[in-house]
């Protein structure tokens, strides 16, 4: 039987619709249940949304947006983190951005792509935008004389760009300096040394002048990896007779009376590897710079074999090794100068030398300048740099003569020789996160025979505060193992660096590589030396305490360093590790860097830039 089905919905009667509200009014329990049900149901939906909303507010308030090239990163900052942790690192998981990078200049050690010429930092609870642009070295207004720390007349100079907080922090460290103005330019400057007479003032101004010139030669090197970057930058390596280099290394077993140097000249003079410290660590001797540099130049992509294509001429004479072998032997001055005289004579026969009187030539000498400036008063060393022919070429040394513009100081070799970008990044991450159990450390020995030495005073102050300061006595052999020194420095906030036999110390670079803030007592130790590798404003990476104040007992080093805040220490360490460290080490000759420039790269780039300005 067919059934008819209607799709029309039955309409409720008007009577039924009007009776429902009346029923709820008559029974209050029914109305309450209905209202409460709606209320709690709404509340259950809103509580999670409220919590999520508050979380996003917190996230926004503690985050920083970094726009780098075409990539936007959202980064979280915290008092417990030295770095910003970026949540949106894209293809770089675990990307860490140093907090201090937002108040310090961008490093010339990290090579930026063309798209990354500017980095803008937004937020951090302030209505500010900090812009950091690539700067050409010609824009630097450097003036770091013995009396000068920083000129702040140009926003583009190295050492400027500090935010207000950083300036306030660094002002605490100015009590060791005298504020003065340059009589010629009127620029404000800070004096490390208060000249005692007119002669000393003239000498300090000369140091200022030459440092300024050397900083003008500094190359940012941002085009190093581009195709064709070697055009017009050919490097010619002289094929010297082996007696000037390789044969000298062959005398390693009899170089000094108390040690066999042969193990130090293994692995392209990097020395034997140190497995306990990780990849890239070697037992490198402090006087191994010459063969290390030579190995790197031989493999440089801009090396040419035709003198006519060369812009820079490298002379691989191991003058420091030559001097070292005679240091502790009773030989005549004529014997000490044999090779020095012969190499100058050999070069004099070359048209490439006479063409520009050696101005486009460079020597690498792995000892201090004074070891090559023997005069009638002293019998130590050779007279290589006193020869008239050696006035015009550039000399790269671990310690320069501050009154010779062609003496350029480059870093002492450290124990760390990374092979890849990853080796550097891995080490940076390790030491930035390292817990440091000691506030202060000093690795060294007293100099009781030197009345000008402050080492005994420092040792006494250190030993009197064992909870704050650790002393590693090098006199008793405590520093013979690199592991002992590096582990001490990794464990310390500050590393005391008083002068030793000369103002400079290899230990300054060892401490920087370990993330330990060096405490400098003599401006000739670092500030008047490494114009290409250390920034003009020393406050970004070190603490300066005038040694004269220490001698006169005007300052207690332990108490002064204890007064520095955690924020100051973290900012300085972040700058050291992320900005300076790559440019202070000499990479493995068999390695290759894509993102970093090491000490060798900065030196070669700056030499080429210097030649362009000289000729």
Automatic annotation (TrEMBL):
Region labeled Disordered — which residues? Answer: 1-24, 141-164
Please give the Gene Ontology molecular function terms for this protein.
Answer: glycosyltransferase activity
User: Where is the chain membrane-spanning?
Assistant: 43-61
Q: In which residue ranges is the amino acid composition biased (Basic and acidic residues)?
A: 14-24
Bias-annotated ranges (Basic residues): 1-13
Residue ranges constituting the Exostosin GT47 domain according to the UniProt record = 230-558
GO annotation, cellular component aspect: Golgi membrane
Give the family this protein belongs to, as stated in its UniProt record. Answer: Belongs to the glycosyltransferase 47 family.
Q: What is this protein called?
A: Exostosin GT47 domain-containing protein
| Lineage start | Eukaryota, Viridiplantae, Streptophyta, Embryophyta, Tracheophyta
């Amino acid at each position: 039987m067919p059934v008819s089905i209607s799709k029309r919905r039955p309409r409720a009667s008007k009577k039924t619709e009007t009776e429902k509200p009346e029923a709820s009014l008559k029974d209050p329990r029914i109305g309450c249940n209905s209202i409460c049900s709606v209320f709690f149901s709404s509340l259950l939906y809103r509580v999670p949304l409220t919590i999520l909303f508050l979380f996003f507010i917190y996230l926004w308030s503690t985050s920083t947006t970094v726009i780098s090239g075409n990539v936007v990163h959202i980064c979280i900052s915290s008092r417990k983190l030295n770095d910003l942790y970026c949540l949106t690192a894209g293809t770089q998981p675990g990307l860490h951005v140093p907090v201090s990078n937002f108040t310090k200049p961008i490093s010339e050690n990290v090579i930026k792509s063309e798209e990354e010429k500017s980095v803008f930092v937004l937020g951090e609870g302030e209505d500010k935008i900090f812009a950091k642009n690539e700067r050409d070295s010609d824009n630097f207004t450097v003036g770091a004389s013995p009396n000068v720390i920083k000129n702040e007349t140009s926003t583009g100079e190295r050492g400027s760009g500090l935010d207000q907080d950083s300036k306030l922090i660094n002002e605490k460290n100015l009590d060791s300096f005298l504020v003065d103005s340059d009589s010629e330019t009127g620029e404000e400057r800070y004096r490390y040394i208060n000249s005692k007479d007119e002669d000393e003032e003239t000498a300090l101004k000369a140091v200022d002048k030459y440092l300024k010139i050397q900083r003008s030669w500094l190359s940012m090197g941002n085009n190093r990896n581009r195709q064709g970057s070697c055009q017009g930058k050919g490097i010619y390596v002289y094929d010297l007779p082996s007696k000037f280099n390789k044969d000298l290394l062959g005398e390693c077993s009899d170089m000094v009376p108390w040690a066999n140097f042969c193990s130090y000249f293994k692995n392209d003079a990097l020395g034997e590897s140190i497995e306990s410290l990780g990849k890239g660590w070697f037992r490198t001797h402090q006087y191994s710079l010459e063969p290390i540099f030579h190995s790197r130049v031989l493999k440089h992509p801009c090396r040419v074999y035709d003198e006519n294509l060369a812009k820079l001429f490298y002379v691989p004479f191991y003058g420091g090794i030559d001097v070292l072998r005679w240091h502790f032997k009773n030989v005549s001055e004529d014997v000490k100068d044999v090779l020095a005289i012969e190499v100058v004579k050999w070069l004099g026969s070359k048209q490439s030398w006479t063409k520009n009187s050696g101005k486009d030539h460079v020597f690498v000498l792995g000892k201090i300048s004074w070891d090559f400036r023997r005069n009638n008063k002293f019998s130590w060393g050779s007279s290589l740099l006193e020869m008239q022919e050696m006035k015009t070429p550039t000399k790269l040394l671990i310690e320069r003569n501050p009154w010779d513009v062609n003496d350029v100081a480059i870093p002492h070799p450290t124990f760390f020789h990374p092979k890849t970008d990853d080796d550097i990044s891995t080490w940076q991450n390790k030491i930035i996160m390292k817990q440091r159990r000691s506030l202060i450390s000093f690795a060294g020995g007293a100099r009781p025979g030197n009345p000008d030495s402050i080492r005994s005073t420092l040792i006494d102050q250190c030993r009197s505060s064992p909870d704050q300061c650790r002393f590693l006595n090098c006199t008793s052999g405590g520093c013979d193992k690199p592991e002992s020194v590096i582990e001490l420095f990794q464990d310390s906030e500050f590393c005391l660096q008083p002068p030793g036999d000369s103002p400079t110390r290899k230990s300054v670079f060892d401490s920087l590589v370990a993330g330990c803030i060096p405490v400098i007592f003599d401006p000739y130790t670092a500030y008047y030396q490494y114009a290409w590798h250390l920034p003009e404003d020393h406050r970004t990476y070190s603490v300066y305490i005038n040694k004269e104040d220490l001698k006169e007992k005007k300052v207690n080093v332990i108490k002064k360093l204890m007064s520095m805040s955690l924020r100051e220490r973290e900012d300085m360490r972040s700058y050291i590790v992320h900005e300076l460290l790559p440019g202070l080490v000499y990479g493995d000759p068999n390695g290759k860097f894509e993102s970093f420039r090491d000490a060798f790269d900065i030196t070669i780039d700056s030499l080429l830039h210097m030649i362009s300005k000289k000729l």
